[in-house]
Amino acid sequence: MNAADVLSRLSRRGLFRIKPELDRMQAIMRALNDPQEGYPSVHIAGTNGKGSVAAGLEAVLRAAGKKTGLYISPHLVDLRERIQISAHPIGQNAFETAAETVYQAEKITGLSLTYFEFLTAMAFVAFRNAHVDIAIVEVGLGGLWDATNVLSHPLLSIITSIGTDHHQWLGPTRTAIALQKAGIIKPDGTVISGVRGAPGRSIAAVAKRQNASLRQLDRDFKVQPGSSFWLENRQSGLYKNKDGDSLEFIFGLIGNHQMDNASLVIEAVQQLRLKGWDITEGQLLNGLREIHWPGRFFLRRQTGQAPILFDGAHNSEAMRAFLGTLRYSPWHHIPKTLIFSSYRDKDYRTMALLLKRIPQKIILCRLPGSRGLDTRELSKAFRTLKALVEIVESPQAALRRALASTPQNHLIMVTGSLALVGMLLPFVSPLAGEADPQRRVRGPLTPTLSHKGRGSNLERKSEYAHV
Fold first, then answer.
1. N or C: which end of the chain has fewer CB within 10 A?
2. How remote is the C-alpha of 188 from its chain's centroid?
């Protein structure tokens, strides 16, 4: 089975076909001799932030010399990005081998997996074949019935946030959705939660029923935001926990919501240390600083053209976080052109209302496939805005139009869908010295800001300069 065959077979399964049960996955895993149990794992759920936490934890573990497996969704450009070995998308041969292995398990069992289930099984097989030291596995949808929940003994379960995305499958309220996410909590396990309010209390109740140890953001640990370094896409912060530990750090993602994600990564490392994992403070700091997660408040500049700000905000909570970060950025008062699109099952109307008074010009386009929202429907959501609205036939045409019509001292924003970001990011070449979106960031930053923590093996004196 070559790569073209794999993609063809996957496409026939239906990209968004969902069957909420684990029986098929469990049977296939048994036929494969349970590859997911052959290495330690960390399981991460949440409406928003789970990808950032997964990428941050992977960066730290890799900095600590571990061979990592990372399973994420969706991908930006290439499907193989979903299955990574030590921060590299799975190679074509390994991709084909994993697919053939899972396909043979289907033939043996007589079962047919969904698109996401098949990719999940491929990831577990690929990680076993690569002999990874640890796998970081991101939930696709919900938690309880997600295909990844065949992980029976993860080292940690992490739940980042609760929003109303996918309510048609997960439930009408945040509390109902929280219970679905809490389905990844295992008996006698360890769970780290960044969920606040009533949904957070629901997660705590599940942890108690499962006799799981709970570490709760704002109760057991917290983070204090520091300075933002916008052009380098980094910010400083101070982590503290109730045990008296503290750590000043640099995180390679911008926005106050990313400070919550950074604190979850640091707390996860603390818990891994308690379980015997050897991760030094220097390795932790290096991993946090060198996280690479493009498409999240990601600025790309081109000579002679307006800079382009990419953010894959695809629901109302993510859009609020994006606009909140934008409000405190150097580009807040700069005139803006917006490129926007959305899938039909997303809350695009609320996102449109949140964007009011932000752009001077809006360019709408349709995402490919049956799930793409018709631009006529999309334009109705923006009709009450005072900005000029233009409709074009494709994301690429929208980018060409924006670049041609936006002065270079203005800003182009691409948001509304991570798929839209993934389609357009490859068409924008980095300036000389800028990091390519498919490569790990290595920024020119030198320590120069001093801070001394108190009473902890995590304490350090550090300095940081904006270069």
1. C
2. 27
pLDDT of residue 422: 94
Q: What angle do CA 440, 118, 76 make, to 5 degrees?
A: 30
The tokens describing 200, both together, are: 């957070």
- Whether the CA torsion 400, 401, 407, 412 is positive or negative: it is negative
Q: What is the pTM assigned to this prediction?
A: 0.88
- From the number of C-beta atoms within 10 Å of its C-beta (0-12, 13-18, 19+), residue 33 rates as exposed
State the Cα–Cα distance between residues 136 and 52, nearest whole angstrom: 12
Alpha helices in 86-173 (DSSP H): 92-109, 115-130, 167-170
Q: How far apart, in whole angstroms, are the C-alpha atoms of residue 310 and residue 130?
A: 33
Residue pointed to by tokens 């730290």: 60
Quickly list DSSP for 353-369. Answer: HHTTTS-SEEEE-PPSS
pLDDT on residue 302: 83
| Local structure of 139: helix, strand or coil | coil
Predicted confidence at residue 303, as pLDDT, reads: 86
Question: What gap in Å lies between CA 434 and CA 371, rounded to an integer?
Answer: 34
Counting other chains too, the contacts that 356-361 makes at CB distance below 8 Å and 24 or more residues apart are 356/384, 356/385, 356/386, 357/385, 357/386, 358/323, 358/326, 358/413, 359/387, 359/413, 360/335, 360/336, 360/387, 360/388, 360/410, 361/336, 361/337, 361/387, 361/388, 361/389, 361/390, 361/405, 361/406
Measured in whole angstroms, the distance separating CA 351 from the mean position of its chain's CA atoms is 19
Antiparallel, parallel or unpaired: β 221-229 and 234-241: antiparallel
Q: What is the mean pLDDT of each run of 10 residues along the chain (467 residues)?
A: 75 64 94 98 95 97 98 93 97 95 96 94 98 97 93 97 63 80 97 96 97 98 95 94 96 95 98 98 97 91 92 92 95 96 92 90 94 92 86 96 96 96 88 48 30 33 25
Report the SS3 class of residue 418: helix
Question: Any idea what DSSP says for residue 415?
Answer: E
Kind of pairing, strands 83-85 and 88-89?
Answer: antiparallel
Phi, psi of 388 (to 5 degrees): -70, 125
DSSP β-bridge partners for residue 338: 362, 413
